Amino acid sequence: MPDTSCDIGLIGLAVMGQNLVLNMNDHGFKVAVFNRTVSKVDDFIANEAKGTQVVGAHSIQEFVSLLKRPRRVMLMVKAGDTVDQMILHLLPYLEADDIVIDGGNSLFTDSNRRTRDLAEKGILFIGTGVSGGEEGARFGPSIMPGGNPAAWPHVKDIFQSIAAKVEDGTPCCDWVGEAGAGHYVKMVHNGIEYGDMQLICEAYDLLQRGLGLSADDLHQVFTDWNQGELDSYLIEISSHIFAKKDEDGAPIVDKILDTAGQKGTGKWTVFSALDLGQPVTLIGESVFARCLSALKEERVEASTILEGPAAKVVVSDRIAFIEDVRRALYCSKIISYAQGYMLLKAAAKENGWNLNMGGIALMWRGGCIIRSRFLGMIKEAFDKNKAIDNLLLDNFFSSALNRYQGSWREAIVHAVELGVPTPAFSTALAFFDGYRTARLPANLLQAQRDFFGAHTYERIDQPRGQFFHTNWTGRGGRVSSSTYNA
């Protein structure tokens, strides 16, 4: 008889998969492993997993035979078709109530489909976001599971044991919601991560080009920032990056080519925001900033043709400038998270998910890439008022924006004068000014739409929901176009 003592099985022994297995082993769970390139199994067992309880398998059939019932199989493979192919390979060996877990960066609509299709076969599916990178996977990631609720009790102990813990020991893992909810929350997490990284890069660019700060200076500034309101993983690692020297003693950061890569989750976030009619402008600008960075050769050519400000702006008060940039970064970060939560709220309504907004902030509080002190304040905001329309209306965040907005504007003015692009800072301020404006110029836009396309408009002196059309030229007809909202 085969040994069926393994608590969980994991397929996919790239860096995240290996580290999750070792993390599970550390917490007393016996793990079976398989990889399509079977030699990786033997290599892992002989090296990284040497001396552990981890059991290697050389076929899918052998792998499944090692697992306790209900069998728990976690896939850490490339998102997309690879996940579907691996599920097809597994199905002949699985039984009713066995559980398939997709821990990759899958698109939430794929997780919707897999939850439904596997349920029809009697198999329980979980689509879970896992954040924290290599180190997080090894020592405690943020885990965001969603899918078939019947599966959660069978994986809860494993997931919450290996997850990061906040100060009071609460795990950064809880059930998110049905179908693709877990992967949707991870997608928005990644979109916010795009925003955080772009904002930090804009602060770096302003300080470097505006004040001429060296990498050593920037290391000190970011180290100081990490002691206060901006305390976060990304600020911390940025301070370390500035301190790292190449073999010749020069800062490595100065030698890295300025073209940014991306894997698509930021783009998916923007697509979803457009589908749901949510103005998630900061993440959008962060994605476009990466696209612009990729046009390296064109930018080099343009730099010899297109001119910036004629005279170099001299910043007289260095300390004040650094503080303006810090405050601009903090205010813009508030806007980014507020927009992300607007999107989560809209998606929950659209998909019928019961998302615990404060719980999501707690899941992001430790282990993940966007972990920060700041997330504790978001949880407190939802603890005070679960039905709050927007984080910007919470007293903590509104007070910070009202208090710091002068510095925020000063930083952007300096950027304009210096010719330093700050798309994320600027769009955050534009959103703030738009959101706090009782009357926007969209009345003229609606008049234009009605003029050329008879798209109708509402009136301020009539109840909402009543639509009107004007024959602007005297030549138009009485028939108006149908009306809908994005």
Give a verbal description of the structure.
The protein is an alpha/beta fold. Helix content is 52%, strand content 7%. It is built from 19 helices and eight strands. It has an eight-stranded mixed β-sheet with strand order 3-2-1-4-5-6-7-8, sandwiched between helices. α5 (108-120) links the parallel β5 (99-102) and β6 (124-131). α11 packs across α12 (281-293). The longest helix is centred in the last third of the chain and has 34 residues, at 318-351. It is globular, with a radius of gyration of 26 Å.
Order of helices and strands: EHEHEHEHEHEHEHEHHHHHHHHHHHH
- Number of H/I helices: 19
Using DSSP, what is the number of strands? 8
Helix content: 40-55%
Radius of gyration: 26 Å
Q: Shape, please?
A: globular
Instruction: Kindly report the average pLDDT value.
Output: 94
What structural class is derived from the secondary structure elements? alpha/beta
Q: Roughly how many Å apart are the termini?
A: 59 Å
What does the main sheet amount to?
8 strands, mixed
Strand content: 5-15%
Largest beta sheet: strand ordering: 3-2-1-4-5-6-7-8
Uncertain residue segments: none
Q: In a few lines, what is going on in this structure?
A:
This protein is an alpha/beta fold. It is built from 19 helices and 8 strands.
Comma- or semicolon-separated keywords:
486 residues, globular
